[in-house]
Amino acid sequence: MACYRNVDVVEPFPSGLISRFVILLVFLSTSFPVCDSEGISPERCLIWGPGLNPDTVLPVRYFFIQAVDSKGENLTLSPGKDTFKVKIGSLDTNEYLRIHVPPPLDRGDGSFLLRYRLYSTAHKGLKIQVSYKDAAVANSPYTIQGPVHHEYCDCPEPDASVWQSVMQCPADDRQILDDFKSFPTIDLQHLRQEVPHRFSNRGGLIHYAIINNHVYRRTLGKYTDFKMFSDEILLSLTRKVRVPDVEFYINVGDWPLETKTSAAVPILSWCGSTDTRDIVLPTYEVTHSTLETLRGVTNDLLSVQGNTGNFDTPEQNSPQFMSSSLVYFCLCYKLLNFLIEYLSLKEIALKLQLAGLNYVGMYFYTERQTGQPTQHADMELVPQLDDHTAACRCERNSYKEETDVKDEL
Ligand SMILES: *[C@@H]1O[C@H](CO)[C@@H](O)[C@H](O)[C@H]1NC(C)=O
User: Fold this and answer.
1) How far is the CA of 88 from the centre of ligand 1 (A)?
2) Cα(38) to centroid of ligand 1, in Å?
3) Residue 156 and residue 399: Cα distance in Å, rounded?
4) Residue 147, preceding bond cis, omega within 30 degrees?
5) Which of 145, 153, 321, 323 is the 20 to 30 Å CA partner of 293?
């Protein structure tokens, strides 16, 4: 018996007794929610996702398994939660790899989510084996050439465009574009005077400067404990990608701050509203889940997908939500980069062309941030972890500490 009941088999019987019997049979068979998985064809199953790409460094890496039957059709119901087994190990048999691989999460629709967390870097690489009964699934075993860095390995990709394409970052977020409309230029000198003057007694304000991919900050106000969120996100981001030098304020209070419509100053906030000018960071809940993902709490964004009972809103079932930790890092990078520069006119022209409009003109990159990001006297370095949990060799062919990312402009 496969997951799909073949309706043609049930001939229309004239006898009421027989049809009642058939109805009873159908009733009996539908009352077993887990269908027999004999129809699964291991080699026709599909496996895909960022967790198969060594360069997609995420706190928890993940990929998907789609069960496919011998006719080549996707299963749309769960074939049972223990259908697939996954083993992940180092390609180097002498390397002791610390790794956590929970069983695949049954998404209830014929697909599974496999997550794994590396606690150390696999320098030579990883071997991922997915099996159904004893047969190899799809193209298993998968060989992921190393180094496969773990979350706490401080090894930023120097070229942000390479990083963004590896991450397959989604196109520019409308919200970000809208938020930045009010700030064609950001004068750092003005920002440093105006923001503390107007907002330092309003609760929680954190002043950050990222210089040479190091994070510095000072706090203004009484309620700044939530800096642990922003610290952790910025540290995680700078371990993954080289962030341009940038200086900004984050409001960690739970209310947006900037209400001026003219001469507004840009403040990053966890929350926004239509009548304030704060630049909204990806939502607090997502931040929280991302942090828990970083810290290893099990009830994270990725694990909750298996718990479909709690997830019936469309956005929580969307691919966006699936990959939200990945999208989150993309958004954070974009946001910081938007503080520095405008969308280039070249990109705008390209978009107009794609929309069937011709645009002829000169193309520039326009700098939004004016002034040099500086470590304020009260700012301290927010250090990366420096213990055994962070130990790794950062191996990047092109890695140079002083590479100036803006050279290519
Ligand atoms: C089967 O599932 C995969 C993954 O979700 C999807 O890309 C593919 O289009 C599906 N195939 C069919 C025939 O629906």
Assistant:
1) 25
2) 20
3) 8
4) yes
5) 145
Pair 255, 132 in one domain = no
Q: Global pTM?
A: 0.77
Average of pLDDT values for 194-201?
91
**What number of residues does the chain have?**
409
Give pLDDT tens digits for 6-32: 333 333 334 444 444 444 444 444 444
pLDDT in tens, 345-393: 556 666 666 666 555 544 444 678 888 999 999 999 999 988 888 999 9
Domain containing 14: what range?
A: 7-32
Same domain as 344, residue 296:
yes
Please tell me what DSSP assigns to residue 33. -
Ligand 1 within 6 A of CB of 44: no
d(CA 218, CA 227): 10
Does residue 352 share a domain with residue 254? yes
- Burial (CB count within 10 angstroms: exposed 0-12, middle 13-18, buried 19+), residue 353: exposed
**Structural contact between residues 75 and 110, judged by C-beta atoms closer than 8 angstroms:** yes
- Do 139 and 191 lie in one domain? The reply is no
| Amino acid occupying residue 340 | I
Spatial distance between the Cα atoms of 189 and 60, rounded to a whole number of angstroms? 39
Q: Whose CA is nearest to atom 11 of ligand 1?
A: 74
74 lines ligand 1 (CB under 6 A): yes
- Following DSSP, what letter does each residue of 216-285 receive, concatenated? EEEEESS--TTHHHHHHHHHHHHHHBPPPPEEEEEE-SSS-----SSS----EES---TT--PEEPSPHH
Phi, psi of 20 (to 5 degrees): -65, -40
**Residues 82 and 206 occupy one common structural domain:** no
Which residues, 6+ apart, have CB-to-CB distance to 27 below 8 Å?
none
Q: Give Cα separations from 327 to 58, 114, 167, 319 (angstroms).
A: 11, 18, 8, 10
Q: Is 280 strand, coil or helix?
A: strand
**Plot region of 108 (φ>0 → left; ψ -120 to 50 → alpha; else → beta):** left
Task: Give the whole-angstrom CA distance, residue 250 versus residue 230.
Answer: 8
